[in-house]
Amino acid sequence: MNHDMDSCIQACLDCHRVCLATVAHCLQRGGSHAEASHIRIMLDCAQICLVSADFMIRGSTLHGRICAVCAEVCRACEQSCSGHPDGDDAMRRCAEACRRCAGECERMAR
Amino acid sequence: MNHDMDSCIQACLDCHRVCLATVAHCLQRGGSHAEASHIRIMLDCAQICLVSADFMIRGSTLHGRICAVCAEVCRACEQSCSGHPDGDDAMRRCAEACRRCAGECERMAR
Amino acid sequence: MNHDMDSCIQACLDCHRVCLATVAHCLQRGGSHAEASHIRIMLDCAQICLVSADFMIRGSTLHGRICAVCAEVCRACEQSCSGHPDGDDAMRRCAEACRRCAGECERMAR
Amino acid sequence: MNHDMDSCIQACLDCHRVCLATVAHCLQRGGSHAEASHIRIMLDCAQICLVSADFMIRGSTLHGRICAVCAEVCRACEQSCSGHPDGDDAMRRCAEACRRCAGECERMAR
Fold first, then answer.
1. Is A27 in CB contact (< 8 Å) with chain D?
2. Which residues contact B88 (CB under 8 A, 6 or more apart)?
3. Is B33 helix (H, G, I), strand (E, B) or coil?
4. Interface partners of D (3+ CB pairs, < 8 Å)?
5. Which string of b and e fits C30-51 if b means at least 16 CB within 10 Å?
6. Nearest-by-CA chain B residue for A32
7. Angle between helices D63-82 and D89-108 in degrees, nearest 10
8. Residues with Cβ within 8 Å of residue C109, at least 6 apart in sequence
9. How far apart are alpha carbons C54 and C50 in whole angstroms?
10. Distance of CA A107 to the CA centre of its chain
């Protein structure tokens, strides 16, 4: 496995973890943090990042297609976190993980 | 595959779907419906039900251990839904799916 | 939820189940049935079908993007199953589930 | 989140990745490496490790129950890899990741 793919897998697994942790954090804080669309995009992002990692780990020929969609979901999640009116440190970390993962996935995308 | 296992797989897949749909519904309603512990147990239940189904579908020798834990999570989710102070039809349907899945999984448990 | 989406969710969950069962079947049979690329595309298909169902169940705005990729993976899996030199009934059922799921996902794709 | 849980989450994510990579490797090698029961326990292990990580990341109250089952699956996978008649470096690495994850999960188990 080449270095780029290895780095992308790690970024996807990190983003999976950060998104899921941020879901838990935002639900705990409640109010605008627990808004349906915000929680939903983080659940979406956590799930597709894991799948993107798995396709690469398996060496699947279609991994580039999954990475392309994963990058789109990451960008949407980054926006939801960085543009949140009550953004806090947890959300900034989530936005940062999404941004990094989106960049890595875009390099693998087909 | 015997009839009991087939029936349990279907109950798990149904419960996965109902729990995830109820997460979306409760986040949309907000307030006490979107309370962290309530959303979390439904996410837990949706995930372990899918895994329980997958272990049975694969014919894994350890499926009985997963079913045992799945039943516990289903019982906790049933309680969170049926005991909710602002319970609505969606939560009642979720409690019912959890109750049915718990029963099926208990029969497969080891 | 409209009827088309409900039907697509069910097709995805069915395809998830059939692909995973066919993986178990093909590994058991061994030989050409257990060829790496064949098992891998069925694992890919089982996973993305579940994700596609989950995005729709959650009402995610990006579900159409996932459905588009899911349809591609289903088509590749259908081809691997229907074009297999030692195709048997299990593989024919898998190809049929993939074909149906691909069609449903293409209708939801964006 | 305390240090023990953080370390367990990381061990679970590592084990998920190594198991899935070893599935791909063993399918590629074929023969006794692709034996149904061996591939299946690695798929089981990859899946439950991810779930175990997710329960901890979400801060789920039932994570200790999942960790207990995860440890059992990891021990079975470790045995399948370390006891394989044609064991190679990839399998040894997989056995090592399973052993470490089992140990971490046993400390979190309830």
1. no
2. B29, B33
3. helix
4. A, B, C
5. eeebbbbebbbbbbbbbbbbbb
6. B30
7. 150
8. C64, C65, C67, C68, C71
9. 6
10. 15
How crowded is the C-beta side of B62, counted as CA atoms within 13 Å?
A: 22
Residues whose CB is less than 8 angstroms from the CB of residue B103 and which lie 6 or more positions away in sequence, other chains included: B11, B71
The one-letter code for the residue type at D75 is R
The answer to whether the CB of C58 falls within 8 A of the CB of A40 is: yes
| Interface confidence (ipTM) of the complex | 0.96
Retrieve residue A42's tokens.
């983080």
**DSSP at C31:** G
Q: Which of D16, D45, D48 would best serve as a mutation to test chain B binding (most B beta carbons within 10 A)?
A: D48
- Amino acid (one-letter) located at D104: E
Tally of CA atoms within 13 A in the half-sphere of D50 that contains its CB: 25
CA atoms of D88 and D51, how far apart (whole Å) = 28
As given in the structure block, the two tokens for residue C10 are: 């069910």
Check if A32 contacts B (Cβ < 8 Å): no
Q: Crossing angle for the helix pair A36-58 and D3-29, nearest 10 degrees? A: 40
Q: Mind listing the pLDDT tens digit for each residue in D39-88?
A: 999 999 999 999 999 999 999 999 999 999 999 999 999 999 999 988 99
For residue C49, what are its two tokens?
A: 């079908």
* Residues in chain C, pLDDT under 50: none
Q: What share of chain B is helix, strand, coil (3-state, %, to 5)?
A: 85, 0, 15
Q: Residue C93 has which token pair?
A: 């059922």
